[in-house]
Amino acid sequence: MRSTSLILCSAIVALALTGGGGVASAQAGIRPVITPGTGGAEMILREVGVDETYESPIPADATLRDHEGHTVTFGELWRGDRPAILQFVYHQCATTCDVAMTGLTTVLTAQPRSVGIDLDVYTISMDPRDTPEVAAQARARSLGRYGRAEAADGWHFLTGDEGQIQRVAQAVGYRYRWDEPSQQFAHPAVMMILRAGPEARVGRYLYGIEQSPNDVRIGLAEAADGRTVDAAEAALLYCFMYDAQQGRYVVMAWRIMRIGGGFCALLLIGTLLWFWRNELRPRGPTSVSSSGVSSSGVSSSGTSSDGDPSGASTRAGTAAR
């Protein structure tokens, strides 16, 4: 089992570094990424950002509206038995938010986990002017791009009053501001991965408009807390570590070298054992047929195959000469 994990890890790291297969290379992001309105003032930007907090739960009684206009609480939507992704957008944003939502759909399509089965997604509008009808249109576009029917039960597009939206945003340390001159929101570009558990808490912050599929996969595996982690994801968790300075996952070189050294040592030991067993294998006596005649034509009693005593013919021939 251990050797299998080592081989898996080595293969996955090779794929991650080369961008092959379904695991993409880690994204070199800038932390944090601020995407303000074009006319935003520097004072506004100083009020925008992310205060990473991993212990504060999202209020279960935060009241929002789903895409059909029904009033729901976050606690009613939270399952707790699987990880989730939280994303803040606003639907009047025709540039950054649309790119971020398209990027999220692309990243989710590349994941082995499926929305609605293995994880949930909460897309919350920070703009209290957005209506459920607008959210429903955005939901239809995203589900159409994603293309997995089960996602309809796990991808929630939510709107709400400013105070309730702020409760959720403050719980995860997400700070945004309205920029009056540009009539746009200044906000960070960040995806939050929520840990599975009784309460919704952030497990990882991944920065950038578009995230690396590899980072998202590792983040979800971490956030699953061992509930639904397969062998490949376990190998990824061993080989990658979250770099808080870069806001992404990086390869742990010393672990890769340890795996390579251990694998070579196992291969060498196995080869030596194979040769050792062959050397120590006992060699059997000369085979004797059922008639008592060896393969050389001499019987075990010292008599040749023609009935003469062993060596008699030879001695006689020597005396004659």
Oligomer: single chain
CATH class of the largest domain, please?
Alpha Beta
- Percentage beta strand: 15-25%
What is the mean pLDDT? Answer: 75
Going by helix content, strand content and strand pairing, the class is alpha+beta
CATH superfamily of the largest domain: Glutaredoxin
Report strand order across the widest sheet: 7-6-5-11-12
Write down the domain tally: 2
Q: Rg, please?
A: 35 Å
How many DSSP-defined strands? Answer: 14
CATH architecture of the largest domain: 3-Layer(aba) Sandwich
Helix content: 25-40%
| CATH fold-type name of the largest domain | Glutaredoxin
Task: Please outline the major beta sheet.
Answer: 5 strands, mixed
Q: State the distance separating the first and last CA atoms.
A: 75 Å
Provide keyphrases for this structure.
321 residues; alpha+beta; Glutaredoxin; 2 domains; 5-stranded mixed beta sheet; 3-stranded antiparallel beta sheet; 10 helices; 14 strands; disordered N terminus; disordered C terminus
What does this structure look like?
This protein is α+β, with helices and mostly antiparallel strands. The chain has two domains: 1-27 and 235-278, no CATH class; 31-211, Glutaredoxin (3-Layer(aba) Sandwich), CATH 3.40.30. 38% of the residues lie in helices and 18% in strands. The chain has ten helices and 14 strands. It has helices spanning 2-18, 42-46, 74-77, 96-109, 132-146, 162-171, 213-223, 231-239, 253-280, 312-320, and strands spanning 34-35, 49-50, 63-65, 71-73, 84-89, 120-125, 155-158, 174-175, 177-179, 184-188, 190-195, 201-207, 240-243, 248-251. Strands 7-6-5-11-12 form a five-stranded mixed beta sheet. It has a three-stranded antiparallel beta sheet with strand order 1-10-9, with no helix packed on it. Helix 1 crosses helix 8 (231-239), helix 1 crosses helix 9 and helix 7 packs across helix 8 (231-239). The chain starts with a helix and ends with a helix. Residues 1-41, 292-307 and 309-321 have low confidence and may be disordered.
